[in-house]
Design a protein that fits this description.
It is a single chain. With 377 residues, the chain is mainly beta. The chain has four helices and 18 strands. The longest helix is centred in the first third of the chain and has 17 residues. The radius of gyration is 27 Å and the shape is elongated. The chain starts with a helix and ends in a 28-residue tail after the last strand.
Protein backbone atom coordinates (compact mmCIF):
# COMPACT_ATOMS: atom_id res chain seq x y z
CA UNK A 1 0.00 0.00 0.00
CA UNK A 2 2.85 2.35 0.88
CA UNK A 3 4.50 1.54 -2.47
CA UNK A 4 1.32 2.46 -4.38
CA UNK A 5 0.94 5.71 -2.41
CA UNK A 6 4.50 6.70 -3.24
CA UNK A 7 3.83 6.16 -6.95
CA UNK A 8 0.74 8.38 -6.78
CA UNK A 9 2.73 11.12 -5.02
CA UNK A 10 5.49 10.98 -7.63
CA UNK A 11 2.91 11.21 -10.40
CA UNK A 12 1.19 14.23 -8.86
CA UNK A 13 4.52 16.04 -8.36
CA UNK A 14 5.58 15.36 -11.98
CA UNK A 15 2.18 16.52 -13.26
CA UNK A 16 2.36 19.73 -11.25
CA UNK A 17 5.78 20.54 -12.71
CA UNK A 18 4.62 19.86 -16.27
CA UNK A 19 1.71 22.22 -15.75
CA UNK A 20 4.22 25.01 -15.08
CA UNK A 21 5.47 24.92 -18.66
CA UNK A 22 3.53 27.33 -20.87
CA UNK A 23 4.07 28.25 -24.48
CA UNK A 24 4.86 31.94 -24.79
CA UNK A 25 4.20 33.19 -28.33
CA UNK A 26 6.60 35.96 -29.29
CA UNK A 27 4.93 38.82 -31.08
CA UNK A 28 6.86 39.78 -34.20
CA UNK A 29 4.63 42.67 -35.24
CA UNK A 30 7.38 45.19 -34.53
CA UNK A 31 9.86 43.43 -36.84
CA UNK A 32 11.56 46.00 -39.03
CA UNK A 33 11.45 44.85 -42.63
CA UNK A 34 14.84 44.91 -44.33
CA UNK A 35 15.38 44.83 -48.06
CA UNK A 36 17.49 41.95 -49.38
CA UNK A 37 19.26 41.94 -52.75
CA UNK A 38 20.87 38.92 -54.43
CA UNK A 39 22.23 40.04 -57.79
CA UNK A 40 24.72 38.63 -60.29
CA UNK A 41 25.90 39.56 -63.77
CA UNK A 42 27.91 36.95 -65.66
CA UNK A 43 28.61 35.36 -69.03
CA UNK A 44 26.79 32.34 -67.55
CA UNK A 45 23.02 32.84 -68.09
CA UNK A 46 22.32 30.67 -65.03
CA UNK A 47 24.18 33.17 -62.83
CA UNK A 48 22.69 36.32 -64.34
CA UNK A 49 19.70 37.39 -62.28
CA UNK A 50 18.54 39.83 -59.60
CA UNK A 51 16.33 38.99 -56.63
CA UNK A 52 14.85 41.72 -54.42
CA UNK A 53 12.69 40.84 -51.42
CA UNK A 54 12.11 41.58 -47.74
CA UNK A 55 13.79 39.55 -45.00
CA UNK A 56 11.40 37.62 -42.78
CA UNK A 57 11.78 36.80 -39.07
CA UNK A 58 12.47 33.13 -38.38
CA UNK A 59 10.51 31.28 -35.70
CA UNK A 60 11.16 27.72 -34.63
CA UNK A 61 8.79 25.26 -36.31
CA UNK A 62 7.80 27.70 -39.06
CA UNK A 63 9.03 26.28 -42.34
CA UNK A 64 6.68 27.57 -45.05
CA UNK A 65 7.37 31.28 -44.84
CA UNK A 66 6.05 33.42 -47.66
CA UNK A 67 8.52 36.08 -48.73
CA UNK A 68 7.17 39.49 -49.62
CA UNK A 69 8.60 41.50 -52.50
CA UNK A 70 8.61 45.27 -53.00
CA UNK A 71 7.03 46.93 -55.99
CA UNK A 72 9.86 47.94 -58.32
CA UNK A 73 9.25 50.48 -61.06
CA UNK A 74 12.61 50.08 -62.81
CA UNK A 75 15.68 47.87 -62.46
CA UNK A 76 18.79 47.86 -64.63
CA UNK A 77 22.55 47.36 -64.67
CA UNK A 78 24.76 50.06 -66.19
CA UNK A 79 28.29 49.78 -67.58
CA UNK A 80 30.91 52.39 -66.72
CA UNK A 81 32.86 52.80 -69.96
CA UNK A 82 30.30 51.54 -72.48
CA UNK A 83 27.43 53.66 -71.18
CA UNK A 84 25.08 50.69 -71.62
CA UNK A 85 21.92 50.07 -69.62
CA UNK A 86 20.95 46.41 -69.31
CA UNK A 87 17.28 46.46 -68.38
CA UNK A 88 15.86 43.60 -66.28
CA UNK A 89 12.26 42.39 -66.07
CA UNK A 90 10.36 40.22 -63.61
CA UNK A 91 9.87 36.82 -65.21
CA UNK A 92 9.49 34.20 -62.49
CA UNK A 93 7.40 33.77 -59.38
CA UNK A 94 8.76 31.12 -57.02
CA UNK A 95 6.72 29.05 -54.57
CA UNK A 96 8.17 30.98 -51.62
CA UNK A 97 6.70 34.22 -52.93
CA UNK A 98 9.97 35.65 -54.20
CA UNK A 99 10.96 35.91 -57.84
CA UNK A 100 13.78 36.75 -60.20
CA UNK A 101 14.51 39.57 -62.59
CA UNK A 102 16.28 38.51 -65.78
CA UNK A 103 17.76 40.59 -68.64
CA UNK A 104 15.08 41.83 -71.01
CA UNK A 105 17.36 41.52 -74.04
CA UNK A 106 20.68 39.90 -74.90
CA UNK A 107 23.81 41.82 -73.91
CA UNK A 108 27.57 41.54 -74.26
CA UNK A 109 29.38 40.71 -71.04
CA UNK A 110 32.76 42.46 -71.37
CA UNK A 111 35.87 41.60 -69.42
CA UNK A 112 37.71 44.48 -67.73
CA UNK A 113 34.43 46.46 -67.69
CA UNK A 114 32.67 47.70 -64.56
CA UNK A 115 28.96 47.28 -63.87
CA UNK A 116 26.59 48.79 -61.32
CA UNK A 117 23.07 47.81 -60.23
CA UNK A 118 20.27 50.38 -59.95
CA UNK A 119 16.61 49.95 -59.07
CA UNK A 120 13.72 52.19 -58.04
CA UNK A 121 10.76 51.38 -55.81
CA UNK A 122 7.31 52.75 -56.54
CA UNK A 123 7.94 55.63 -54.11
CA UNK A 124 10.98 56.58 -56.29
CA UNK A 125 13.51 55.45 -53.68
CA UNK A 126 16.76 54.84 -55.57
CA UNK A 127 18.97 51.89 -54.60
CA UNK A 128 22.44 51.39 -56.03
CA UNK A 129 25.51 49.16 -55.74
CA UNK A 130 29.14 50.29 -56.15
CA UNK A 131 30.92 49.61 -59.42
CA UNK A 132 31.90 45.95 -59.75
CA UNK A 133 34.87 45.16 -61.97
CA UNK A 134 34.89 42.09 -64.20
CA UNK A 135 38.00 39.91 -63.96
CA UNK A 136 39.30 37.43 -66.50
CA UNK A 137 37.77 33.93 -66.41
CA UNK A 138 39.65 31.25 -64.45
CA UNK A 139 42.72 29.81 -66.20
CA UNK A 140 43.01 26.16 -65.11
CA UNK A 141 46.42 24.79 -66.12
CA UNK A 142 46.15 21.32 -64.53
CA UNK A 143 43.75 18.99 -62.72
CA UNK A 144 45.15 16.53 -60.17
CA UNK A 145 43.56 13.48 -58.52
CA UNK A 146 44.86 12.96 -54.97
CA UNK A 147 43.78 9.97 -52.88
CA UNK A 148 43.98 10.37 -49.12
CA UNK A 149 42.35 9.69 -45.76
CA UNK A 150 40.08 12.17 -44.02
CA UNK A 151 38.49 12.12 -40.59
CA UNK A 152 34.72 12.35 -40.89
CA UNK A 153 31.99 12.22 -38.28
CA UNK A 154 29.27 9.68 -38.99
CA UNK A 155 25.77 9.98 -37.52
CA UNK A 156 24.33 6.61 -36.43
CA UNK A 157 20.60 5.96 -36.22
CA UNK A 158 20.88 6.14 -32.43
CA UNK A 159 23.55 7.82 -30.35
CA UNK A 160 26.15 10.51 -30.85
CA UNK A 161 28.26 11.04 -34.00
CA UNK A 162 31.52 9.12 -34.06
CA UNK A 163 34.79 9.79 -35.93
CA UNK A 164 35.88 7.51 -38.77
CA UNK A 165 38.78 7.62 -41.21
CA UNK A 166 37.44 7.58 -44.76
CA UNK A 167 39.45 7.19 -47.97
CA UNK A 168 38.45 9.66 -50.69
CA UNK A 169 39.89 11.35 -53.76
CA UNK A 170 40.27 15.13 -54.02
CA UNK A 171 39.89 16.62 -57.49
CA UNK A 172 42.25 19.61 -57.34
CA UNK A 173 42.57 22.35 -59.94
CA UNK A 174 45.71 24.44 -60.43
CA UNK A 175 45.02 28.05 -61.44
CA UNK A 176 47.51 30.34 -63.12
CA UNK A 177 47.60 34.01 -62.15
CA UNK A 178 46.94 36.43 -65.02
CA UNK A 179 46.64 40.14 -65.60
CA UNK A 180 43.35 41.40 -64.18
CA UNK A 181 42.88 37.84 -62.96
CA UNK A 182 40.43 36.65 -60.31
CA UNK A 183 41.02 37.24 -56.61
CA UNK A 184 39.13 34.03 -55.98
CA UNK A 185 37.26 31.15 -57.59
CA UNK A 186 33.81 29.74 -56.98
CA UNK A 187 32.85 26.22 -58.14
CA UNK A 188 29.52 24.61 -58.97
CA UNK A 189 29.93 20.89 -59.61
CA UNK A 190 27.47 18.28 -60.88
CA UNK A 191 28.08 14.72 -61.98
CA UNK A 192 27.02 11.22 -62.96
CA UNK A 193 28.13 8.17 -60.98
CA UNK A 194 28.43 4.67 -62.41
CA UNK A 195 27.24 2.12 -59.81
CA UNK A 196 27.33 -1.67 -59.89
CA UNK A 197 25.17 -4.53 -58.65
CA UNK A 198 25.45 -8.31 -59.07
CA UNK A 199 23.04 -11.04 -60.17
CA UNK A 200 22.82 -14.74 -61.03
CA UNK A 201 20.90 -13.83 -64.18
CA UNK A 202 23.13 -14.07 -67.27
CA UNK A 203 21.43 -11.12 -68.95
CA UNK A 204 21.29 -8.80 -65.95
CA UNK A 205 21.60 -5.09 -66.59
CA UNK A 206 23.67 -4.66 -63.46
CA UNK A 207 25.16 -1.19 -64.08
CA UNK A 208 23.18 1.92 -63.18
CA UNK A 209 23.91 5.66 -63.39
CA UNK A 210 23.02 8.22 -60.72
CA UNK A 211 22.77 11.91 -61.64
CA UNK A 212 23.78 14.54 -59.06
CA UNK A 213 22.72 18.13 -59.70
CA UNK A 214 24.89 19.42 -56.83
CA UNK A 215 27.96 17.66 -55.43
CA UNK A 216 29.11 20.36 -53.00
CA UNK A 217 26.50 21.19 -50.38
CA UNK A 218 28.54 24.14 -49.05
CA UNK A 219 29.95 27.13 -50.89
CA UNK A 220 33.19 26.08 -52.57
CA UNK A 221 35.49 29.12 -52.66
CA UNK A 222 39.26 29.35 -53.27
CA UNK A 223 41.32 32.52 -52.79
CA UNK A 224 44.15 33.46 -55.17
CA UNK A 225 46.55 35.94 -53.51
CA UNK A 226 48.17 38.48 -55.85
CA UNK A 227 51.71 37.46 -54.90
CA UNK A 228 51.25 33.82 -56.00
CA UNK A 229 51.65 32.78 -59.61
CA UNK A 230 49.58 29.65 -58.97
CA UNK A 231 46.77 28.67 -56.63
CA UNK A 232 45.36 25.22 -55.96
CA UNK A 233 41.80 24.51 -54.94
CA UNK A 234 39.67 21.40 -54.45
CA UNK A 235 36.86 21.25 -57.00
CA UNK A 236 35.12 18.39 -55.22
CA UNK A 237 35.84 15.28 -53.15
CA UNK A 238 34.59 11.83 -54.17
CA UNK A 239 34.30 8.83 -51.81
CA UNK A 240 36.25 5.66 -52.60
CA UNK A 241 33.60 3.42 -51.02
CA UNK A 242 32.38 2.65 -54.57
CA UNK A 243 34.75 2.21 -57.52
CA UNK A 244 32.59 3.02 -60.54
CA UNK A 245 33.61 5.83 -62.88
CA UNK A 246 32.41 9.33 -62.03
CA UNK A 247 31.71 11.98 -64.66
CA UNK A 248 32.24 15.53 -63.37
CA UNK A 249 30.92 18.73 -64.93
CA UNK A 250 32.51 21.78 -63.35
CA UNK A 251 31.54 25.42 -63.61
CA UNK A 252 34.32 27.74 -62.41
CA UNK A 253 33.68 31.43 -61.73
CA UNK A 254 36.31 34.15 -61.40
CA UNK A 255 35.44 36.66 -58.66
CA UNK A 256 36.74 40.13 -57.87
CA UNK A 257 38.27 40.90 -54.49
CA UNK A 258 35.10 42.22 -52.87
CA UNK A 259 32.98 39.21 -53.83
CA UNK A 260 35.75 36.78 -52.83
CA UNK A 261 35.80 38.20 -49.29
CA UNK A 262 32.00 38.05 -49.11
CA UNK A 263 31.86 34.40 -50.21
CA UNK A 264 34.59 33.52 -47.70
CA UNK A 265 32.50 35.06 -44.92
CA UNK A 266 29.45 33.07 -46.02
CA UNK A 267 31.54 29.89 -46.10
CA UNK A 268 32.85 30.58 -42.58
CA UNK A 269 29.31 30.75 -41.24
CA UNK A 270 28.15 27.73 -43.23
CA UNK A 271 31.00 25.56 -42.00
CA UNK A 272 30.33 26.17 -38.29
CA UNK A 273 29.83 22.84 -36.53
CA UNK A 274 28.57 24.10 -33.18
CA UNK A 275 31.79 23.56 -31.25
CA UNK A 276 33.47 26.03 -28.89
CA UNK A 277 36.16 26.58 -31.52
CA UNK A 278 33.75 28.03 -34.09
CA UNK A 279 33.95 31.77 -34.76
CA UNK A 280 31.12 33.88 -33.36
CA UNK A 281 28.26 34.52 -35.80
CA UNK A 282 28.47 37.94 -37.40
CA UNK A 283 26.45 40.08 -39.76
CA UNK A 284 27.77 40.11 -43.32
CA UNK A 285 28.01 43.59 -44.75
CA UNK A 286 26.16 44.15 -48.03
CA UNK A 287 27.06 46.57 -50.81
CA UNK A 288 23.63 48.05 -51.68
CA UNK A 289 22.56 51.45 -50.36
CA UNK A 290 19.54 53.69 -50.57
CA UNK A 291 20.69 56.94 -52.20
CA UNK A 292 17.76 58.77 -50.59
CA UNK A 293 18.32 57.42 -47.06
CA UNK A 294 21.86 56.61 -45.91
CA UNK A 295 20.52 55.26 -42.61
CA UNK A 296 18.62 52.39 -44.22
CA UNK A 297 20.42 49.05 -43.95
CA UNK A 298 20.09 46.88 -47.05
CA UNK A 299 21.19 43.24 -46.91
CA UNK A 300 22.84 41.35 -49.75
CA UNK A 301 25.07 42.25 -52.67
CA UNK A 302 25.39 42.69 -56.41
CA UNK A 303 28.50 41.35 -58.12
CA UNK A 304 30.00 40.05 -61.35
CA UNK A 305 31.50 36.64 -62.17
CA UNK A 306 33.41 35.45 -65.23
CA UNK A 307 32.57 31.87 -66.12
CA UNK A 308 34.33 28.91 -67.70
CA UNK A 309 33.42 25.22 -67.65
CA UNK A 310 34.95 21.81 -68.20
CA UNK A 311 34.34 18.12 -67.64
CA UNK A 312 36.26 14.95 -66.90
CA UNK A 313 35.80 11.29 -65.98
CA UNK A 314 37.38 10.06 -62.74
CA UNK A 315 38.34 6.38 -62.96
CA UNK A 316 38.18 5.34 -59.30
CA UNK A 317 39.08 1.71 -60.04
CA UNK A 318 42.36 2.87 -61.59
CA UNK A 319 43.02 5.12 -58.59
CA UNK A 320 42.34 2.19 -56.25
CA UNK A 321 44.78 -0.05 -58.14
CA UNK A 322 47.54 2.57 -58.05
CA UNK A 323 46.97 3.58 -54.40
CA UNK A 324 46.80 0.26 -52.52
CA UNK A 325 48.46 1.60 -49.39
CA UNK A 326 45.20 2.91 -47.85
CA UNK A 327 42.75 1.06 -45.62
CA UNK A 328 39.71 1.06 -47.90
CA UNK A 329 36.17 0.44 -46.70
CA UNK A 330 33.99 -0.41 -49.68
CA UNK A 331 30.31 -1.10 -50.06
CA UNK A 332 29.29 -4.64 -50.91
CA UNK A 333 27.69 -5.05 -54.34
CA UNK A 334 23.90 -5.26 -53.91
CA UNK A 335 22.28 -8.51 -55.03
CA UNK A 336 19.52 -8.04 -57.65
CA UNK A 337 17.45 -10.22 -59.95
CA UNK A 338 17.46 -8.78 -63.45
CA UNK A 339 18.50 -5.12 -63.21
CA UNK A 340 20.05 -2.64 -60.85
CA UNK A 341 16.89 -0.54 -60.50
CA UNK A 342 15.58 -3.18 -58.10
CA UNK A 343 18.06 -1.75 -55.60
CA UNK A 344 18.65 1.88 -56.67
CA UNK A 345 15.03 2.45 -57.81
CA UNK A 346 14.10 6.03 -58.73
CA UNK A 347 17.49 7.58 -57.96
CA UNK A 348 19.19 5.92 -60.95
CA UNK A 349 18.77 4.98 -64.62
CA UNK A 350 19.92 1.93 -66.60
CA UNK A 351 20.41 3.88 -69.82
CA UNK A 352 24.02 4.78 -70.50
CA UNK A 353 24.54 8.58 -70.55
CA UNK A 354 26.38 9.92 -73.59
CA UNK A 355 29.30 10.85 -71.34
CA UNK A 356 29.94 7.12 -70.74
CA UNK A 357 29.26 5.86 -74.24
CA UNK A 358 32.40 4.52 -75.85
CA UNK A 359 33.52 3.19 -72.47
CA UNK A 360 30.55 0.83 -72.06
CA UNK A 361 29.34 -1.58 -74.74
CA UNK A 362 25.78 -1.82 -73.43
CA UNK A 363 23.64 1.14 -74.44
CA UNK A 364 20.24 -0.22 -73.42
CA UNK A 365 18.66 -3.35 -71.93
CA UNK A 366 18.76 -6.44 -74.17
CA UNK A 367 17.13 -9.90 -74.08
CA UNK A 368 14.37 -8.70 -71.78
CA UNK A 369 12.39 -11.90 -72.33
CA UNK A 370 15.05 -14.14 -70.79
CA UNK A 371 14.37 -13.09 -67.20
CA UNK A 372 11.19 -11.74 -65.69
CA UNK A 373 11.12 -8.00 -65.04
CA UNK A 374 9.39 -7.08 -61.79
CA UNK A 375 7.90 -3.93 -63.32
CA UNK A 376 7.98 -2.18 -66.72
CA UNK A 377 10.51 0.56 -67.40
Amino acid sequence: MKHISAKIIYFLVAFSFSACIDEVPIQMDQWEKKLVVDGWLSNDPNLTYIKVYYAQPFQSGQFNRNITTPSISKIYVESETGGEEIEFEFVEQLASGSGRFLPKDTFEFRYEEKYRLNFFLEDNSHYQSPWQNVVQPPNISEVKEEVGTKLEFRQPVFGAPFPQNVVSVDINAVFEQQENGPAGYYFKTSGIEEVYTRSNCEYCVCTCYIHYDILNTQINIVEHPENLSEATGTITTLPMTRLGKFFLEVGAYGLNEEQTKLMQQIYTQQSNTGTIFDPMPFRIQGNIRNLDDDNEEVLGTFSTASFTEGSMIVDRLRLYETNRGFDYTQEALPEVGIHCLEYFQDEATIYVPEQFQGENFLGQPVALDVCQWPYPL
